[in-house]
Design brief:
CATH architecture: 3-Layer(aba) Sandwich
Helix content: 40-55%
Strand content: 5-15%
Distance between the termini: 63 Å
CATH class: Alpha Beta
Order of helices and strands: EHEHHEHEHHHHEHHHHHH
CATH topology: Rossmann fold
Number of domains: 1
Shape: globular
Length: 290
């Protein structure tokens, strides 16, 4: 099997509970050609056995001059995937989106309930006791430390899910630049986030137009609510994340999870040169003054 191919320029390595939103924006860039599905090529030996030629064909039809890659979810937690990616595409840029592990485990719980793999009567604590792999999958410090042993920070772009939600335009510009495409491109779905030019006068609609828009919005919301009850859509992972962040943790479970992840988050903070221990509430901010 041939190694060190040059076709793939970037690989998204996950994590599954955090990466989908950023991935959705990356796919909208006209210069990016990404595989439609997560192939699990580097993390599943049976899939990998189909060969690199098979893997690269999963890109489908890409226009000349585009940047090729895969936006996967299973690679971050797989050491074997790391070895195979580094061997096969040593010059590829990597991207990872991580989440506060206290949110990640709740996302997994919401998704399990949505998929009916567990009963609605199963509590979060019971779910985690029955599924220890969920706890392991959110140990991002341990997982990323393996990747940083192979890749320099310049080749491995890591952001948090909250970065993507709260600083969307800045993060996607950095991600585009990391991949090697025009970082000034703004997806149409994010045009509303562009701040008005300095000095530009923004005209407020007249009262008639404002009233019309309010009525239209109310009608749309009313019929939208009815439609969603009759035809409930699949919950995308970002919606699951929104639901998960609203799920309360019992004091006992929160204490257990913080103790379980405390060292891992400290490792993550050192890797990223960012105090996630404080940001995520695992440690108190000692710089605050009374």
């Amino acid at each position: 099997m041939r190694a060190q191919r040059k076709l793939i320029s970037f690989v998204g390595i996950g994590a599954e509970s955090a990466a989908p939103l950023l991935y959705s924006y990356l796919r909208l860039h006209p210069a990016i050609c990404a595989m439609e599905e997560d192939t699990r090529f580097f993390s599943d030996t049976k899939v990998y056995a189909q060969g690199i030629d098979w893997y690269e064909k999963q890109l489908g039809k890409c226009l000349p001059g585009m940047v090729y890659g895969e936006l996967g979810f299973s690679y971050l937690r797989s050491v074997s995937a790391l070895n195979l990616i580094a061997k096969t595409y040593p010059s590829a840029k990597l991207l990872a989106v991580i989440e506060n592990p206290l949110v990640s485990v709740r996302v997994a719980y919401v998704e399990a309930r949505r998929a009916n793999t567990i009963s609605n009567k199963v509590s979060l604590a019971q779910f985690l006791k029955q599924s220890p792999e969920v706890l392991m999958s959110a140990r991002y410090g341990k997982q990323l430390s393996e990747y940083f042993s192979f890749y320099a920070p310049i080749d491995l772009f890591v952001v948090t899910a909250s970065d993507v939600r709260d600083n969307t335009l800045s993060v996607i510009a950095q991600a585009y630049d990391h991949i090697g495409v025009d970082k000034k491109f703004i997806p149409p779905v994010l045009q509303h986030l562009i701040p008005p030019e300095e000095g530009e006068t923004v005209r407020r609609p007249g009262i008639i137009k404002r009233t019309y828009r309010a009525i239209k919005k109310a009608i749309k919301g009313f019929f939208g609510a009815i439609h969603s009850r009759l035809f409930p859509p699949d919950i995308p992972i970002e919606t699951a994340s929104m639901v998960a962040r609203q799920l309360p943790l019992s004091p006992e479970l929160e204490a257990f999870l913080k103790e379980y992840y405390r060292r891992d988050v400290a490792i993550l903070s050192n890797l990223l040169h960012r105090n996630l221990s404080v940001e995520w509430g695992f440690e108190e901010d000692k710089t605050e003054t009374n």
